Amino acid sequence: MRVDKKYSNWQLVALVTIRFLIGWHFLYEGITKLMNPHWSAASFLLESKWILAGIYKGIAGNPSVLSIVNVLNTWGLIFIGLGLILGCLSRTATVAGMGLILLYYFCNPPFIGLYYAIPSEGNYLIVNKNLIEMAALFVLLLFPTGNIIGLDHLFHKLRSK
Amino acid sequence: MEEKMDDSRSTPKKGIERRDFIQGLATLPILGLFTLSWLKKTIHDRPKNFRKSQRAIPEGLSDINVAFLGTGEQGYILMNACLKIPGLRFKAVCDIWESYNQKRAAQMLKKYKHEVNTYLDYREMLSNEKDLDAVIIATPDFWHADHTVACLEANLHVYCEKEMSNTLEGARRMVDAARRTGKLLQIGHQRRSNPRYLHCYNNLIKDAGILGRITAVNGQWNRAVQPDIGWPKKYVIDSPTLKKYGYESMYQFRNWRWYKGLGGGPIVDLGSHQIDIFNWFLDARPKSVMASGGTDYYNKNTHEWYDTVLAIYEYETKQGVVRANYQTLTTNSSEGYFENFLGDQGTLHISESANRGGVYREPTAPQWDKWVSSGYLSAPKKVTPQITTGAVLDVRETIGPDRHNIPVTFNDPYHLPHLENFFNAIRGLEKLNCPHDIGYETAVTVLKVNEAVEKARRLDFDPKEFRT
Fold first, then answer.
1. Chain B CB contacts of A161 below 8 Å
2. Which among B32, B275, B410, B434 has the fewest CB atoms less than 10 Å away?
3. Which CATH number does the domain housing residue B197 bear?
4. Residue burial A107-133, b: 16+ Cβ < 10 Å; e: rest
5. B147-171 per-position pLDDT tens digit
């Protein structure tokens, strides 16, 4: 991997802050799901609208697939969150985070003509917070910081020792 | 792996220096801060959990523990809607059809990680389940009073399907129990919480008075011929159990709606929803009713209640007399189900069926541009007469009024908002949209139709009948 990034101090602070904030969000989402033995993605999946609704509802309707999805989602959120906060395998965590958010986005996209039973906390037209968080992760992917501030820096040093 | 850091902070040097450790581990305080915050939140939330376990009234958005009493077709529909509502914990299901209804419901809830206990007898459920907050009752009408009263007396909030009861005596007992215990009792006239109906009542009728003086109402629910309801033979309920719970046979258990003493027939099953809307939108109770009906098509031995009913109510509203007719057919599905409110300035056509509805301005009424610009109505669509070859438009014909759509879309399960209203009321966030006194008024209004058919004459309502 070749990293040729040269950031000013403030640029680095801004990028690492975004990384921390998104990592924090992921980690807490994952931990709350882990701590709640009754949590299931089913109600979220059943709410799915748009052309992919059949796939999401199919997952919700199949108990064995649903239980796998629940575990993957919970631990995915936790590992991505830890990866972003600690700067550990941060590129992998960033890409995985984008993928996961994309799945959320297409489950309940705020497109014209789609209405949801569970009201969101804001009002959205095509763009919602999921999409924005995904875009922020895309920025982090293009402007990585794990090799500067994070465990990735140490791993790199250890390997190049 | 080659890595080049142009940044002065990370100029590659051989070996690990102190600076590298600082850079590598600089993120750990953030993880520490996260852990600290999480622990603080966990400790902060703990007292609420303790209160919950002591069975206090649920506060704020804490979980509500719910049981289902009656998990047949209707109970299953309500269950599916409830699964979309956050903050509910399903603890128990009770149904006398253990091998089918009860099993299906429990399996469904377990799929969604609700560990439920199953019961055949509601008394056993109420004595065993000590941490319930609310019960959803979807049993046959003749059980509603006993079930509701028992649940209210067990200090539980109750959502009971309509019809409130198949007898007024039963409905009165339910009202008394709700008043005595102070617990909430919501009756399942779910249109009362439907955002399209709420928009029509609050905005179009009450605020804008868009229909002018309403002079007539008509509504219908026409349904195609349906075979009797069967059951998988291997899941038959044994005779002593059926008898214990009031059924003569498995056939009667499955087709209870047609039996006197158990249900109320189509006018109650179907008409009740819509006649309730007559009362609501007119803001009045009827003065009288006359009706014609009978079991004209099906076997009278198995269909004791009338398969065809046509009823005419007379209302005395603040604006004047309103005549309302309602029909339910079970032999022809023409035009399905809807309600029409006809005023001297416009017509409101509405149905629970999501793709139906419209508001039509009378040619002599003032323009509705104001209501279109305020969002109460969508812009009108011109209704142009269809001229087919050979047909000639007569000058005496009035061109149809423009059609405005109701600008509220509702694509969720029909019962969802009504259930949400119930649970929000338990949390103290909303008032019930169909509390026991409204349910009672509707029961009085609807049950009188069967009486009018039987007596074959016009029956008057005493205003006192609507009060308990």
1. 14-16
2. B32
3. 3.30.360.10
4. bbbbeeeeeebeeeeeebeeebbbbeb
5. 999 999 999 999 999 999 999 999 9
